[in-house]
Amino acid sequence: VRLARRGEAQAFDQLVERYLRGALAVALEYARDRDEAEDIAQDAFLRTLRELHRFDDRKSFRPWFFTILRNLGRNAVARRGRQVDDVAALDARAADPAGDAAADAELRSMIERELASMTAQQAASFRLCEIEGFSAPEAADMLGIAPATVRTHAHRARIKLREMLTARGYRSPE
Amino acid sequence: MSDWRELSRLPESSEYWRALQRRIGGAASPELAAQRAHQRWINRGLAGGVLAAAACVAALLLAPPASSDGQVSLEAGLAPADPLARELLSSPEPPPVGGLLVTYARLEP
């Protein structure tokens, strides 16, 4: 962080490399599609670079960075007036060809709808921990909440999804 | 679907991540250049400060030593022209009244 603050491109690249996957995962929570999520993530890195002189080196970088990212995500949502339960967008997302081709589109669509019906933090906790594989402390920093809260949200979301899938005759993933 | 991970919205392709990283690095390059320039400016300022401080130290070291009676000269310079007042101010102890009277008598025409 200190080197990036001095304008060292290599140090900045390392920061981007380390946090890019998480940044895109969180940005997708706010974005309509991956293109918009990439823009939000890029803006977050650029804003972070401009604000690095304000960063307190004694603190952890990750929560600071993700606070900037979430603020930009909220701004994007506010600009757009996004409807979270926009079924068409969710269907489009579920049918995203970049996703796992083996996944059943209908099942994915159902899961996306169920996630969209949950609170934003519950859905995001589940996505980050169960789907994207981040640890609870990592997801906690990314979402700006406590790790225990992330675990609780993810657990409740998993129960809801299992109930929904079981009720429709599907076998819930592990 | 046997695993929640199959729902991931993050691309698997390493080329995708490299391209995105390059894109962000490219967008950041003007800001990075500005920060390097700013850092150079600070470094030059620091170097100038160090040089100035070194010059001050050298001047102090090379300056001729102050005279040992500097303190006395200063007091004499600050003392009023009036001999009576000078005696009152410059004496290490309160002057005896008799001494002051003698001084006063000398002032009288």
Please characterize this protein's 3D structure.
The complex is a heterodimer of chains A (174) and B (109). In chain A, helix 6 (105-117) packs across helix 9 (147-167). Helices cover 72% and strands 0% of the residues of chain A. With 174 residues, chain A is an all-alpha fold. Chain B is built from 4 helices and no strands. Chain B has helices spanning 14-62, 70-78, 83-90, 97-107. In chain B, helix 3 runs antiparallel to helix 4 (97-107). Chain B is rod-shaped. The mean pLDDT of chain B is 81. The chains are: A mainly alpha (174), B mainly alpha (109).
Which descriptors apply to this entry?
heterodimer; A: 174 residues; mainly alpha; B: rod-shaped
Summarize the structure.
The complex is a heterodimer of chains A (174) and B (109). Helices cover 72% and strands 0% of the residues of chain A.
Distance between the termini of chain B: 123 Å
What is the residue-mean pLDDT of chain A, rounded to a whole number? 86
Radius of gyration of chain B: 39 Å
Radius of gyration of chain A: 17 Å
Largest interchain contact: A-B, 41 and 29 residues
Major sheet of chain B, described briefly?
Answer: none
What class do helices, strands and sheet pairing of chain A give? mainly alpha
Strand content of chain B: under 5%
Strand count of chain A: 0
Form type of chain A: elongated
Please give the structural blueprint.
The complex is a heterodimer of chains A (174) and B (109).
Chain A: H1 2-5, H2 9-30, H3 34-51, H4 61-80, H5 87-94, H6 105-117, H7 120-131, H8 136-143, H9 147-167
Helix pairs in contact in A: 2-3, 2-4, 2-7, 3-4, 4-8, 5-6, 6-9, 7-8, 7-9, 8-9
Chain B: H1 14-62, H2 70-78, H3 83-90, H4 97-107
